[in-house]
Design goal:
The protein is an alpha+beta fold. The chain is built from 8 helices and 4 strands, in the order H-H-H-H-H-E-H-E-H-E-E-H. The protein has a domain of 150 residues: OmpA-like domain (60s Ribosomal Protein L30, Chain: A, 2-Layer Sandwich), CATH 3.30.1330. Its main location: membrane.
Length: 227
């Protein structure tokens, strides 16, 4: 009888251990590189610099030296556009100018930053401040310093068009003000524009957090920026 009891106890111990082990393995683990709220980690200065750095230009060869030159008109038009909006207030841009900026910017080096703000406010949230600070350091790095950058604010689809347009403009202005005050970036090197909910990053999920973003674009125009 004692031998049978010991055997039963051993079996029960194994079963209990198996159940405990199974429960432990089934617990969710923290996602790698995640923040306290489960979102992806703040972007780093190096990541921003790599995203915004102009693509290296291919060196000319003897064969290319006699090839027809590319039409300079698009570059001239881009320069004229940038010159016309540098130093302008965000609210002063017309819908046509906003679309022209978007058209030029689509082929330029850019990065989307998921910068959040206080509710119904243009105040940068504390959890997003590291990303904004990384942006400031990146824009003053030797690789990027002196270029003209577009800082574009976007919202999700909640709310009316006029409300979201105003909110996106105020939030873009908030980012610019911080960069100018804290990192001494020339105000004329930062062109701020708001798009409201007109250019959703994820149209299939119009309320998704990914749509509430600030996009930074390197317009690659150091000559203009230095004037």
């Amino acid at each position: 009888m004692k031998s049978a009891a010991k055997g039963l106890t051993a079996i029960l111990s194994i079963v209990t251990l198996s159940v405990a082990l199974g429960a432990a393995l089934s617990l969710p683990t923290s996602p790698a590189f995640a923040g306290d709220d489960g979102n992806s980690k703040n972007v780093t200065e190096d990541e921003i610099v790599r995203a915004l750095a102009p693509a290296p230009k291919k060196p000319l060869t003897r064969g290319l030296s006699i090839a027809p030159q590319a039409d300079p008109a698009p570059n001239a038009a881009e320069t004229k556009l940038i010159q016309s909006v540098r130093g302008r207030s965000t609210r002063s841009l017309s819908s046509t100018e906003r679309e022209e900026i978007a058209s030029v910017a689509k082929d330029k080096p850019n990065i989307d930053l998921e910068i959040t703000f206080d509710y119904n406010s243009a105040n940068i949230s504390a959890k997003s401040m590291p990303s904004v600070q990384a942006l400031g350091r990146a824009l003053t790095s030797p690789d990027l310093k002196g270029s003209t950058f577009v800082v574009a604010g976007h919202t999700d689809a909640a709310g009316g068009e006029a409300y979201n347009q105003d909110l996106s403009e105020r939030r873009a202005d908030s980012i610019k003000r911080y960069l100018v005050e804290k990192y001494s970036i020339a105000a004329t090197d930062l062109v701020t524009v708001g798009y409201g909910k007109s250019k959703l990053k994820d149209p299939s999920q119009p309320m998704a957090e990914a749509n509430r973003r600030v996009q930074v674009v390197n317009m690659e125009n150091k000559t203009t920026a230095s004037k």
